[in-house]
C-alpha cells in the first residue's frame, strides 16, 4: 500500500549544542526533506524546556517556506490555549498568501511548557479563556473559512492553510470531524493499538479514509546502531490528583513541573517510548504493516534522536525506499 511520509521537528538541543545551532539544524533538515520528496514538514511548539528550541513555529515556518520549493510546511502544532484564535488565523493567512497551496495549520490543545512559562504566555488573555479551547477551535475554523460580521481576516489567500487537529483520543478525533478538519493521531505518544484502531475506524466510516498517524521513527545503516541510539531513551509521566498529566524527558524535569504546578499530590512513572527503529527497510516494513492494518495513507515521523548528523542521516535513509517504490 502506498503512503506519504511527513516529518515533525521539535528542534531538539543535543548535548554541547546551542539553541541557535538546533534551529539551524531544523532549517537544514527541512531543505533536505524538500529535496528528498517528503510531503510535509511540521514544526512543534514548546516553551521553557531546555532540551527543545521550538518556541515559535510560525517564525520557522516562514523561514522554511522561503528556503524550499515544493514541500508543504506547517505547525505541529500551534498551541491554541495560549493565543487568541483571530491572531492565529491572521498569521497563517499571511503565510498562505505568500506561499499558496503549501501551508498547513496544525492545532494542539495542550499548553506545551512548564507551568510558570504557561502563566507568562497566558497573562494577557481574558480570565478563563485559556481553558475554552473548544470555543477557540470553533471560532478559528469559522474565521479561516468565511469573513466574520464586521471584520475579516486579511489578506485572505486564494488557497488558505489546510487545518489539522492534533490529538490522542477518540474525543479529539470526533472534534476534528465536527470541525471538518483533518486529524493527526498521536500514535507516537501512547502506542495504544486499540485506540488507534478505533480512531481509524471512525474516520474510515465518516470520510472513507484514515487519519494521519504520528509515529516515532529512527533509521541507521544497521539495526544494531539504531537500537543502540534509542536504547536509553525514556520519558517520565507526571500525573496530578486533579487529573492533569504531562510527559517530560526526566524525573528531575517532572519534579520541577510539579513544584511549579502547585500544592497538588502527584505520581511519577517512567515509560519506554514506542519507537520504530532499525534500517530503513525495517522502518518501512513496520509502516507498511500499520498502513494495511489501519488504512493509513500518511505518516508524520517524529525523529527521537537529537544529534544532528544522526537525524539528517535517518531522514535520508527513510526516504530512499519510498523513492525506489515511486520510481
SSE layout and pairings?
Elements: E1 4-9, H1 19-36, E2 40-43, H2 57-67, E3 72-79, H3 85-98, E4 103-108, H4 115-121, H5 133-145, E5 162-167, H6 170-179, E6 182-185, H7 187-190, H8 193-207, E7 212-219, H9 223-230, E8 235-240, E9 245-248, H10 251-261, E10 266-271, E11 275-278, H11 280-294, E12 298-302, H12 308-326
Parallel strand pairs: 1-2, 1-12, 2-3, 3-4, 4-5, 5-6, 6-7, 7-11, 7-12
Antiparallel strand pairs: 8-9, 8-10
Helix pairs in contact: 1-2, 1-12, 3-5, 6-8, 11-12
Quick take:
By secondary structure, the chain is of the alpha/beta class. It is built from twelve helices and twelve strands.
Describe this structure in words.
The protein has 327 residues and is of the alpha/beta class. It has two domains: 4-231 and 274-326, Luciferase-like domain (TIM Barrel, Alpha-Beta Barrel); 234-271. The chain is 44% helix and 20% strand. The protein has helices at residues 19-36, 57-67, 85-98, 115-121, 133-145, 170-179, 187-190, 193-207, 223-230, 251-261, 280-294, 308-326, and strands at 4-9, 40-43, 72-79, 103-108, 162-167, 182-185, 212-219, 235-240, 245-248, 266-271, 275-278, 298-302. Helix 11 (280-294) crosses helix 12 (308-326).
Amino acid at each position: 500500500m502506498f503512503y506519504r511520509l511527513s516529518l515533525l521537528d521539535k528542534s531538539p538541543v543535543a548535548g554541547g549544542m546551542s539553541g541557535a545551532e538546533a534551529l539551524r539544524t531544523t532549517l537544514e533538515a527541512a531543505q533536505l526533506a524538500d529535496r528528498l520528496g517528503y510531503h510535509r514538514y511540521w514544526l512543534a511548539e514548546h516553551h521553557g524546556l531546555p532540551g527543545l528550541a521550538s518556541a515559535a513555529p510560525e517564525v520557522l515556518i516562514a523561514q522554511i517556506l522561503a528556503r524550499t520549493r515544493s514541500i508543504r510546511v506547517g505547525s505541529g502544532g500551534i498551541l491554541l490555549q495560549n493565543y487568541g484564535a483571530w491572531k492565529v488565523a491572521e498569521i497563517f493567512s499571511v503565510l498562505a498568501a505568500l506561499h499558496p497551496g503549501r501551508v498547513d495549520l496544525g492545532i494542539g490543545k495542550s499548553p506545551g511548557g512548564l507551568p510558570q512559562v504557561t502563566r507568562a504566555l497566558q497573562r494577557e488573555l481574558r480570565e478563563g479563556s485559556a481553558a475554552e479551547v473548544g470555543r477557540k477551535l470553533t471560532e478559528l475554523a469559522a474565521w479561516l473559512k468565511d469573513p466574520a460580521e464586521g471584520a475579516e481576516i486579511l489578506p485572505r489567500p486564494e488557497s488558505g492553510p489546510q487545518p489539522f487537529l492534533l490529538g490522542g483520543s477518540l474525543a479529539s478525533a470526533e472534534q476534528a470531524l465536527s470541525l471538518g478538519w483533518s486529524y493527526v493521531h498521536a500514535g507516537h505518544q501512547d502506542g495504544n493499538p486499540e485506540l488507534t484502531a478505533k480512531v481509524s475506524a471512525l474516520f474510515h466510516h465518516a470520510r472513507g479514509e484514515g487519519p494521519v498517524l504520528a509515529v516515532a521513527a529512527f533509521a541507521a545503516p544497521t539495526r544494531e546502531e539504531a537500537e543502540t541510539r534509542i536504547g536509553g531513551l525514556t520519558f517520565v509521566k507526571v500525573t496530578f490528583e486533579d487529573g492533569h498529566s504531562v510527559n517530560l524527558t526526566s524525573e528531575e524535569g517532572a519534579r520541577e513541573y510539579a513544584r511549579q504546578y502547585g500544592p497538588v499530590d502527584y505520581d511519577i512513572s517512567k515509560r519506554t517510548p514506542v519507537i520504530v527503529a532499525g534500517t530503513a527497510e525495517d522502518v518501512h516494513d513496520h509502516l507498511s504493516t500499520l498502513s494495511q492494518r489501519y488504512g493509513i495513507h500518511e505518516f508524520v515521523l517524529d525523529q527521537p534522536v537529537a544529534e544532528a548528523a544522526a537525524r539528517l542521516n535517518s531522514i535520508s535513509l527513510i526516504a530512499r525506499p519510498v523513492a525506489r517504490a515511486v520510481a
